[in-house]
Structures are given as structure tokens and as C-alpha cells.
Amino acid sequence: MTDHPHVLVTGGAGFIGSHTADVLLKRGCFVTVLDNLSTGYRANISQLENQQRFQFIHGDVTGDVKGLLSKAAKRFGPIDRIAHFAAQTAVPISVDDPATDIAVNLGGTARILEYARHNKVAKLVFASSSAVYDDDAPVPVNEESRARPASPYGIDKLAAEFFLDYYARIFGLTFTALRFMNVYGPRQDPKSWYSGVISIFLDRAVTNQPITIFDDGEQTRDFVYVSDVAEVFAESLMSDKGNSAIINIGTGVEVSINTLTRTILDLAGSSAPVKHEPPRAGDIRRSVTTMDKAVELLDFHPKVGLREGLAETLAWVRTQTKTARPPAPLKHASP
């Protein structure tokens, strides 16, 4: 690997991927973003487009990965490391259409792994999810907690981790899998049904539209700010930290959806009404992680607290309220 490694970021025009691409460019890497723009936006990487060490390739991880990435290598040389974010990320869509979820999240990962194997990629870091855990697992969860996903999305993330382990054992691939808790922050499009609860609730608060809470609102999540996630992802990718490990990435703080809603309304100075609907299939009841492994292997200490992160995200959402994108269907506005 050169002093300025060439890094591929799949799904790099998306929410977390684009923030990670920012960090990698700042670290001196050559960065290629591969994205089909089904849920990502060129606007998320517009700040990178004029940089000489950056290139964008419009393409799909379920397609001709080898052909697409041969173009990337012609400009910046062989790809040294891969940050793999590309995925179908909406749990409700995975429940409605598991075959597509398998094709994208498992099939696409298999193609990226094959590329890494045949092109001697030094390390791959995979964006996994806390959705792999059993809904009845004692909380806080740790990396040894029972994995029994409640959705096809979680099943495919877990299966992809098994593929990572297989490629490590059989082909010598170096990897880290980071199981994200609920990531939030700027660029998480509140107008998209793929978005997390925070960006959607902030959008509703700013526009004084009804906020829909599924179930009683006492379900909990561990919310981690996107800049913290991007930094630890890049650190793992560009070092030997976390090699061959599966690591939870969160804050260790459990927050109820009702508490989150009250905080958002307070920060936004909003009088948006709150209504409740029945729980949705595939959603887990409680979610929070221990931090032991993240601290030990990655020296990960989140820097941004929830109220600070919500304020930063609110400022971004306020700039987006006049966009022409259609609003997210309320049935998908879940934690």
C-alpha cells in the first residue's frame, strides 16, 4: 500500500458513506465512490467532486463490479482498501421484499468480496447492524449476544458477516465488521423512506406536521452521531485496529422514542402533534450496546452527545425543508 492509498467506498453518496469519504480524503487517501444513487445523492459528495484525489462511479454492487472498478484503477491505481456501505437499508422494505434485500445486501457483498479476493485488497471494513441481534436478547447487547434477526435485513447483515469470516479463513482477507446502532446526523434525508427516526422527526417538528410514533414510544435506541461513526470507520479501515473482529458501534446510552421526541420538540420550539400507531413487523423493542470491545480494540469514545448532535442535525434539516423531494411515507417513519 502506498503512502496515499486508494480506497473504494461503496454506497459513498449515501448518509454514512459520504461522511466517511470526507474523512478519508482529509487523511490523504485517493477515494473512489461507487453508488447507484438509488438512495444516495450527488449533493452529499458535491464538496468532494472538484478534488483531484476523488472520483465518482455511477454503478451497482449487484452488477459488473470488476468492470466498473477497472475504470477506477486506471486513474488512481489498484484499490488498496474497501469501505463497504452499499445496501438496502429499510427494514420494512426487507420485510415486504426479502428477495431484493438478499440480492442487494448479500449478493452485492459477495461480489465485493470476490473483487477483494482477486485483487489482493489489504482490508475491507463492513457496515453491519445491530439488527442482527435477537429482540429478546438481554440489554445492553454485546458482541456475544444471541444473533437471531427479526427481519430479512438483519438476516442478510448477519449472513454477510459469515461470508467475511469465510473469506478470512479460506482466502486470507483482512476485515472488520462494525455493527452500527442508530446512526443520525446531517445528510440523512428526512424526505426519504429509508431515513432514521431522528431526521424524519426533526423534519416533522420544523414543519409542524404530525409526528408518528409506532407502538407506545417506550421502545429504546442507542443513537450515535455520524461524525463519530465516520471517524471510527476510517480509523479501522486505515489501520490494523479491529482486524478480524466484529464490533458494536454506539454510545452505550439507551434513549426512549418518547424522550427523543420531547427533546426534538424542545430544540425546534415546535408544537407539532404526536400520534401513535401500532408496532411494525421487524422492529426490535430495546437496543443499546456495551462499549467494552469498541474501546478496547478501536479506542472508540464518542465525542458528540445526543442534544448537541440533534442541534447540529436540526440546523441541517432547516436548510432542507424547501427541497422539492416528496415527503417520506409515514408508515416508514420508524426508529
Task: Explain the overall architecture.
This protein is an alpha/beta fold and 335 residues long. It folds into two domains: 6-182 and 224-249, NAD(P)-binding Rossmann-like Domain (Rossmann fold, 3-Layer(aba) Sandwich); 185-222 and 252-288 and 304-332, UDP-galactose 4-epimerase, domain 1 (Alpha-Beta Complex), CATH 3.90.25. 38% of the residues lie in helices and 17% in strands. Strands 3-2-1-4-5-6-11 form a seven-stranded parallel β-sheet, sandwiched between helices. A two-stranded parallel ribbon has the order 7-10. Strand 1, helix 1 and strand 2 form a beta-alpha-beta unit. The model is unreliable at 324-335 (pLDDT under 50).
Spell out the blueprint of helices and strands.
Elements (H helix, E strand, L loop, with lengths): L5 E5 L4 H12 L3 E6 L18 E5 L6 H12 L4 E4 L6 H6 L1 H21 L4 E7 L22 H20 L3 E6 L1 E3 L12 H11 L3 E4 L5 E2 L1 E3 H12 L7 E5 L5 E2 H12 L5 E4 L14 H7 L7 H15 L15
Parallel strand pairs: 1-2, 1-4, 2-3, 4-5, 5-6, 6-11, 7-10, 8-13
Antiparallel strand pairs: 9-12
Question: What's the CATH H-level homologous superfamily of the largest domain?
Answer: NAD(P)-binding Rossmann-like Domain
How many helical elements? 10
Please give the radius of gyration in angstroms: 19 Å
Mean pLDDT reading: 92
Percent strand equals 15-25%
Question: What strand order characterises the main sheet?
Answer: 3-2-1-4-5-6-11
What fraction, in percent, of the residue positions are helical? 25-40%
CATH architectural type of the largest domain: 3-Layer(aba) Sandwich
The CATH C-level name of the largest domain is Alpha Beta
Broad structural category: alpha/beta
Order of helices and strands: EHEEHEHHEHEEHEEEHEEHEHH
**How widely separated are the two ends?**
40 Å
CATH topology grouping of the largest domain: Rossmann fold
